[in-house]
Specification:
Layout: H1 8-20, H2 29-42
Helix pairs in contact: 1-2
Length: about 60
């Protein structure tokens, strides 16, 4: 039985959000952060996390 990718749901939500917002990434920041959080936890188990920057972002000043 195949193992379910724990972060795939966020990858799908990002694609939907981008389509709904004419590919304006700032409109989807909340979902992108959820994806990063998932990838921080599951980076070794999730194929959709390849290429995702999981470093903590510095607070804007």
């Amino acid at each position: 039985m195949p193992v379910k990718d724990p972060c795939k749901v966020f990858a799908c939500k990002i694609q939907d959000c981008l389509k709904e917002n004419k590919f304006q990434e700032p409109s989807c920041q909340r979902i992108l952060e959820q994806m990063r959080d998932c990838c921080r936890k599951w980076k070794d188990k999730s194929l959709v996390c390849e290429g995702i920057d999981i470093s903590d972002k510095p607070d804007p000043k």
